[in-house]
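User: Can you predict the 3D structure of Winged helix-turn-helix domain-containing protein? Sequence below.
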Amino acid sequence: MSHVVVIEDEGTVRDVLRFHLERAGLRVTAFESTRGTEEALAQADALVLDWMLPGESGLGFLRRLRGDPELRRLPVLMLTARAAEAERVEGLESGADDYLTKPFSAAELVARVRALLRRTLPDTPQTLSNGPLTVDIGAAEARMGGKRLNLTRREFDLLAFLTQHAGRVYSRTELLDRVWGADFLGGERTVDQHVTQLRAHLGDDPTRPDFLETVRGKGYRMRPWTDVA
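Assistant: Sure. Here are the predicted structure tokens for Winged helix-turn-helix domain-containing protein:
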């Protein structure tokens, strides 16, 4: 089981990070500051690091981390409310491998952390496939028969999640929780709208779908291509 260290000073956000990463099958050790993290980091496979922290900032800690011969190659996802391009560039140039802006979806968080883990677990598949559909988690890109689909972030998150769990039925409530996040305030109709949009992108007939199937009274599932062929 991969080990992810989380350093985030906001308790609610820290709990959300832990919940979704553990649900994704990862072992999580969480801290509210950079103090006392050395032992956990020495055993970590990836780090989720908040920019704004009490005492030493996440950015300052990252620069120090990159100067440590034992930890300089640890994959780091910088998490912050700072959305300006100059600040994103500063974070990346300071040594972050990736950058996620608050608020974020659970699916994107997990996808980005898994992409980082591929640096230490190179045998992890980078691309999900289901017949002519391919979903590249790391690149946040989906293709149908080799043609790139022009998806919004949420459409991609939903497609990636359902493709990763092809064959399993998820209720609208579960999808809201797993893809949009537990703090999302929208309703179940949001899921229906995104499924409709994805079907249009996929060329899926809603009455006889090859991919996104409605399971009456239960929710949605991605049909495994073996069921279609």
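The chain is about 40% helix and 20% strand. The radius of gyration is 19 Å.
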